[in-house]
Structures are given as C-alpha cells and as structure tokens.
Amino acid sequence: MMMETVLSRSLRVMFAGSAALMLAQPAFAQDAPIQRVEITGSAIKRIDAETAVPVTIVKMADLKKEGITTVEQVLANLSVSQSSQGTSQVVGSGTGGASFADLRGIGANKTLILLNGRRLANNALDSSAPDLNMIPFAALERVEVLRDGASSLYGSDAVGGVINFITKKDYQGGTVTVGADSPQHDGGFSKNANFGFGYGDLDKDGFNIFAMFDHQSQQRIGGMQRDFNTRYPGGLSGSTSPANYYQEVSANPSGPGCTTGTNLIPAGDGSCLMTTSSFVDYIPKSKRNTGLIKGTFKLNENHELGVEYLSTESKIQSGIAPVPYGGLYINRQRPDGSLNPYFPGNGSIPAAVALDPNYTDIGGDNTAGVKPGFVHAKWRDLPNGSRADENINRQERLVVELKGTMAGWDYQTALTYNKNKLKENLYGYSDGNLITKGVLDGVINVFGAQDAAGTALLNSAALDGNIMNATGKTRGADFKMSREIGDWLNTGHQAALAVGAQYEQQEFYSAANTEYAAKVIASTGIDPNTLNVGKRNVSAFFSELNLPLLKNLDVTAAVRYDKYSDFGHTANPKFGFTYRPATAVLLRGSYSKGFRAPSLYELNMSEAYTNSGNTLNDPINCPGGTPIPGKSSAANCKQQFQVLNGGNVNLQPERSKNGSLGVVLEPVNNLTVTADYWSIRLTQQISTLQDFDILTDPKTFASYYHRNPSGDLATDGSQCPNPITCGYIDTRYQNLGDLNTNGVDLSASYRLRTKDYGNFTIADNATWVHKYEYQNFIGDSMHQNVGAFSGNQVIFRWQNTLNLGWSKGKYAAGLTGHYKSGYQDQEVEDHPGHSVASYTTWDTYAAWEAIKGLTLTAGVRNLFDRVPPLSYQSAVFQAGYDPRYTDPTGRTAYVRATYNF
After folding, report:
1. CA angle 710, 713, 719 (to 5 degrees)
2. Which of 332, 524, 609, 755 is 20 to 30 A from 886 via CA?
3. Half-sphere exposure at residue 439, Cβ-oriented, CA atoms within 13 angstroms
4. What is the mean pLDDT of residues 371-389?
5. Which of 303, 216, 170 has its CA nearest to residue 896?
6. What does the angle CA 804 – CA 133 – CA 791 come to, to the nearest 5 degrees?
C-alpha cells in the first residue's frame, strides 16, 4: 500500500527532489490540495500530471547552490544535451554571440525553446533558434525538458525535444543576490547580481506584481592565458609577422628556424607559419542585463489576466588574430625611383634567397604599379592589433494572457510580441587598398618596425565600424482549452480533451553595412551587398485526447495541422500510452511524426561569395596535392576556394519520426528508477553541401563546379572582383540526406531522512547513445558518429551527471560529478588515430543560513582542476581542445550571498 501511494504521488507532482537534474520525482509530505496542472508535452490540464512522455525537471534553487548563473551552464548539465553552441564559439565565426541548446545532437534548430510555454524570437542573425542568453535566469523557477518529439502539440522545431523555461508565477517581498567567480588561473573572473521585488497576494488582494533584474559580467580568457596552444599549434597561417616573401621559392627574415617574430614555426620550405590560435579568446568578454516585469490580476474567481514584459541585452566581445594580407607585392624601387629600403636585399632587410631582378609572374588583380623584379608577400597587420568582434543582442517580449475556467473548460489565450535585434561591430580591421599600396610603394615595412611615415599610414588605414545589423520579429495569438469529458469506458478514470489554435507572423531582416563591409571584405568574407529579408504567416490547429482504456491503461492521441504561407502545410500525429501492470511499475511509450520548417534565413538568404571553411586541393588541377602540368600549386593546392552561399525558396521541411518506450520503477519507498529508450529518424535535412565533399568527388558533384576560363577556381588570395568569372563552387542551401539516432536515458534517485544526521539525496542521470548515423547528401553512405569526431561534431556514447546532497537545519552541502566518455578525434595528417580521453569534473558547495533571510553559499567548480583533454579538432577557432564539450576555465571558486525580505 505504501508503494502505491508513493508511486501515485510521483506520477502527479510537477517536480520534487533535491538533485539539480532529475526526472519527475516523488513529492514527499505533500499535504496541500493537488491542483490541475499542465506539464510540458501535453495541453491537457489534469490532477494526474503524469504523461506518456519523459520529462526532466530542473529546479533552479538547486542549481543556484551549485554556482550556476547562466542558462548555458544549465544545458551543459543535462545528459540529454549532446552538444551546444556556447558564447565562446562567437570567436571568428559570426554567430552573434548566441548560445543555443541542442538535444540529442541533431541541431540547435531542432530543439524547441519556450518561455512560460510560448516561443521566443529566434536569433536575428540567421533566424535559426532562440539565443539562450536572452532567458531571464534570475526569474526562473524551474526548467522542464521534454525528451521526445512534440510537433503534434508545438509545431515546428520540436524534433529533438522541448525546453520550457518557467518563471515564477507570482512573488511577494524582496530578494537580493550578489556573487563572484574567481578562477585559479588567469582570466575569466566574473560577477553577478540580481534583485527582485513583488507586491500583492493573488488570493487575498486579487493581484500580484513583481519585477526581477539580473546582471552578469565575465572577463575574457585569452589565448595566452592557458597553455592548450602549446599542445597543438592550431590555426596555422602563411600570413605572418615578419612577412613571408617569395618569387619561385619562399623565405622569411626570421628563417630558417623562425625563432624571431610573433608565434612562428617553420613551414619547411624556408617560410614560416603563424599559430593564429594564440590570439584567439578561449572565453570572450561578456555582459548581460535582463529585466522581467510580471503582473497577474484576478478578474473574478474564474478568470485571471496576466501581463509579462521581458527586456534583455547581451554584449559579447571576442578577439582573433590581426588582419592577414595574402596578396601583397613589394617593388624594388619606390615611385620616385629610390631604392625601397623594405625590399629584401636592399640593405635593411637581408635577402634569404636569391631574387630575380626581372621577375614578372604576376597573379591576381591588384597589380597596378607592380614592376618587374617585385616579390610576393604574405603579412599580418600586427601594428593595428588583434581583430575584435562585438555583438550587441537585445530581446523584447510582451505577453498579455487571459486564462481561467468557463463552462467546465480550462482555457488560456494570449497575444504575444517578440523582437530580437542584433548589431555586430568590428575593431582592429584595416583598409586593404591603403595597406596594399603602402607596402608596394615602400612606405609600410612588413618585415619589422615602422618609421613615422609607415606608422601614420597604418593609423590612417585602421577601420573600426559597424558591419552587420539584424532584426527578427514575431507577433502571435494563441488559444487552447481542455476539460475532462467523462468516464467513457467505465474505468473509474475520466477521459480528457484539449483543442487549440495559433497564429503567428514572422519577420526577418539581416543586412551588411555596405560602405564599411566593402572596406574589410578581404578579411571578413562578408559580402557588402548582403541583404536577407523574409516574412511569412503561420496558422495552426491542434487537438489532444487522453482516453483510459482500462483502470491501469491510458492512451493519448494528438494531431496538429500547420499552414505556412511560404512552403505549404503539414499535419503531424502522435500516439502514446501509460500502463501500470503493478503498483510500483509504470510502462510508457509514444510514437510521433514531426517537422522543422525551413527558417526565413535558409529560404531568403541573399547569394554571396566567400572563402571555403577548409583548406583543400582542387581534385582536377591538384590531385593528391600535386599540381598537374600547367597548373600552379599556389592557385590549386591547399587553398580556400571561393564558394557561393545563399538561400533556396524551394526548400521543403525536414521530416522526423520519433519513438520512445520506458519504464518507471519504485521497488522501495523513496527510490525511483527509470529507463527510457528513444529513437529519432530525420529525412530531408536542410543544410549545405560541405566543401570537402564537393572537392573530393568531382564526378558526383560535377554540376557544383564553376570554373573560370582558365579552368581554375578562385582562391582567397586572388582578390578577384568577380567570382562568377573567376570560378567558385556552389554550396547554397538544399534538402539533403537522412539521420538516424537512438539510445537510452537512465535515472535513479533516492532520498533518506534521518532525525539526527539530516536529509540525504542521491540522483544519477545518464544518457547512452547506441546509434548516430548520418548522410551528408542524398545517396551518401551512412557516417557513424557515436564515440567519434565525424563531420563537424562528436556524439558521446555516455554522458552522466551524479548529484549528492545533504541538508540539516540551517546547513546544506552537495557534490556533483559530470562525465563524458572518450572518443576518436578528428583525423589530422601528423596525428592519425588520436583518441580524446574521457572528461570528468566534480563540483562542490556548502550553504549556511547565517541569519533569518540571509543565506551564504561558497563552492568550487572543477574541484580537481581537470584540464580539457587534447583534441586536434579544427571545427572552431580555439585549438588544442574542443570548447563545445569542455571548459578551459579550470578550478573556480565562487561565493554567493542571498537576502530575502
């Protein structure tokens, strides 16, 4: 009988337990009347909140004790979250500083993000997904993570799962929290503060109004403040300081050992390479301010009006290596006929190799004023400093909601407005035309210190400015209602029905600052004429029915119809069941179809030419890295070729099939064990063909090659003004291949209460991935990704989070362990077959209620100072490790003080 009571409660409560990351667990000593509730994954409000789908509940009070202060950190603690794009990946990649969630590793755009059950505006830069930095962390009460597809209820994007961030409903009194995080190693110090105040008792006064404000800031961790670059000098570049120069052979004044200069290593041909990753920030500088005001007003006993306004700003600043110039020329003489003192061999710059005074092999297009006997040069503009990228991201959201009961129905309706606005500014860039002419004419010294004229010219060439602006808006209305509709089959349990409708208007605008972008295109790759504009309307209708077939067997069916003004319509069903064969056993399962609509960016992105992301060989002109007769190595071997990017108005939605089957056990009191098998199949994935696929199979992808009259593809050093006539490869968006993945989520939790020693909790949550295979294009073979770096990411076989907690009176303490299994690293020529070690970190904290209302918390993250394992990945700018899965900060102590009044 005790087991039956405990299990029944565990299936009804919305959340409980003291572990920070737990599946829905039993609520002990719950004496208050149980209200009808709605849990993520179902539109039906009911007393029994258990559903057929698995939901992870995250209590923010527990996470705050562990020193977590950002939503990005919350997602990093979920075993179901395979990979993520954090703010660190803004470095050199133009993400706008956004942080995205990615459940199951199938893409951030296939994880639906909700705030209080409704969508946020997607990141304006590419309209892909909401930026987690826009979530009001201080105002959150809990996070519900649906680990199953849910397009039948929520529509597009709910393929890998749904993350619903839920704020406090009402708040009375005041609260102030201040804290700081101090890494043991240099850089990365952060501070945070939030405060809130609420007034009015909803039941007694008929209203409640509260406001929350949150501030967070973090200092950068620079590329020289950790030694990961010394393990693997990633980001090698032939544009160096001092410059490399060449005619038929290459040389560098600091050669042959490359022992002088900045971050140089020998290239093996007399020239040098620069390790540009030494300039790259491991953690960018960031600052976030978030404010939330929420008012709830009782109109009468059955109806309630709510108004919610969110305003948040995130500013991310990151640094990369100074501007590279790969197509420079140096004349022997200045325009006035005098010797160029900065020409190798003219005196101040010694010539390391014999130079031909009649050399005339000119390439590219910036050849005005170039005279026979010149040398080519590749240089990096260190005098103007490192390049910096500043992304200012603002979000506004207004929700006006009416809810209550009417004629036996629970109803909820709202009007919503979301706006995301992003501005990208650049610093440390320079005018390529001025630099090119200054080097050619002997004013700028690319081999050493500048004189007054060189310094003045470099200063005048410096370009700081705004390069991109983007805005995304959504306006919407929604309505849903649910009720119990009778015991149709005499099971003793009520059937329940929910119906609803939604309408949304989406707008997207992203454009380059043409005048400024034209001056820095050589070092940014951003087309000055970039203009991405899209707009569409979406309407939807959905229904959900829960039907008890037997006293211990319920089935659920749901379906949603979505109509898009740009690509058409789609209908997606879902079926689920719960079965209790014994009092302490629950079986559950579901099957559904889902979709992801092509984003406005993918549909409407303007066509633009830029450099490929990888350094590759032309398979026709340079097979196996050796140029064919008549073709030069400089133009065809180990090059970043021109690519054509752009949208595709003919895109169709991505399609998915999801399945899950699980069991919940309570073999003894206070112990809950769960296991859920999940499976996802994706088809018609929207993506772009990778440059390495196109350039390793010229037969299959022959139609994607567009060569110039000489039969070449343009490269980054050619500075070609017209890529159409200079050559390119086509990498515009299209529907591509399939993806299959499946695995098992496991959890166990136990709570022990003692009179003399306090209360103890233990919770373990793990995800085991059995399969993850994908195609890069239709007809491609399946690539295996579990436990291996494949394509552009890693899928971990095992991820695990273990929480241990203790509390007694005014004291509490806890220990949390995080584990990721090892994997086969990205293949590189000089380190084949490298295996990346597993990654385990431990966090601990202690809390003390010093006086009434004042709680002091101190803790340490990464207690044993675990260093990220060595990785040779080149997917992101940071080198020597992979920042998407590990943390470079190291052991970090933190303190928090919270006062409630």
Report:
1. 100
2. 524
3. 29
4. 91
5. 216
6. 85
All residues at 6 or more sequence positions from 898 whose CB lies less than 8 Å from its CB, including other chains: 175, 176, 177, 854, 855, 857
- Give strand pairing partners of 506: 474, 536
N-to-C CA span, the chain: 42
pLDDT confidence of residue 326:
83
Element (H, E) at 166: strand 161-167
Q: Using CB atoms within 10 A of its CB, is residue 848 exposed (0-12), middle (13-18) or buried (19+)?
A: middle
Q: What is the pLDDT of residues 111-139, one digit of tens each?
A: 999 999 999 888 888 778 888 888 888 88
Q: Evaluate if residue 206 carries a pLDDT over 60.
A: yes
Task: Centre a 10 Å sphere on the Cβ of residue 669 and count the other Cβ atoms it contains.
Answer: 14
**Residue 604 backbone dihedrals phi, psi, to 5 degrees:** -120, 5
Backbone angles phi, psi at 444, to 5 degrees: -100, 130
The burial of 879, by beta-carbon neighbours within 10 Å (0-12 exposed, 13-18 middle, 19 or more buried), is given as buried
- For residues 651 and 685, the answer to whether their CB atoms sit within 8 Å is no
Q: In what helix (H) or strand (E) does residue 115 lie, and over which residues does it extend?
A: strand 111-115
699: Cβ–Cβ under 8 A, 6 or more apart, which residues? none
Report the alpha-carbon angle 320-321-322, nearest 5: 120
C-beta of residue 478 within 8 angstroms of C-beta of residue 399: no
pLDDT for the residue 21? 34
Neighbours of 670 (CB within 10 A): 16
CA-derived radius of gyration, the chain:
30
Question: Is residue 733 classed as helix, strand or coil in its secondary structure?
Answer: coil
DSSP assigned state of 605: P
Ramachandran region of residue 360, left (φ > 0), alpha (ψ -120 to 50) or beta?
Answer: alpha
- Which value, to the nearest 10 degrees, does the dihedral of the CA atoms of residues 234, 236, 242, 246 take? 160
Distance CA 6, CA 401 (A): 35
Q: Is the pLDDT of residue 717 over 50?
A: no
Hey, what are 732's tokens? 């515009």
Q: What single DSSP character describes residue 123?
A: P
List of residues 6+ apart from 272 with CB closer than 8 A: 240, 244, 252, 254, 255, 258, 261, 264, 265, 266
Q: Which residues pair with 848 in a beta bridge?
A: 811, 856
Residue 807 confidence (pLDDT): 93
CB 569 within 8 A of CB 563: yes
Instruction: Say which DSSP state 599 is in.
Output: P
The yes-or-no verdict on residue 828 having pLDDT over 90 is no
Classify residue 148 by its DSSP letter. Answer: S
d(CA 587, CA 578): 6
> What does 346-404 look like in DSSP terms, one character per residue?
SSSS--SS---TT-----SS--TT--TT-EEEEEE-GGG--EEEEEEEEEEEEEEEEEE
- Counting every residue written for the chain, the total comes to 901
Q: In the structure, what pLDDT confidence band is assigned to residue 50 with cuts at 50, 70 and 90?
A: low
Distances (CA, A) of 681 to 654, 664, 707, 741, 775: 10, 25, 37, 7, 12
How far is it, in rounded angstroms, from Cα 685 to Cα 680? 13
Distance CA 655, CA 573 (A): 12
pLDDT of residue 47: 59
DSSP assignment of 480-497, as one string?
Answer: EEEEEEE-TTSSSS-EEE
pLDDT, position 68: 81
Angle of helix 514-524 relative to helix 432-440, nearest 10 degrees, comes to 60
The predicted-structure confidence for 2-17, as pLDDT tens digits, reads as follows 333 333 333 333 233 3
Between CA 3 and CA 1 the distance in angstroms is 5
How far is Cα 111 from Cα 105, in angstroms, rounded to an integer? 9
pTM value? 0.86
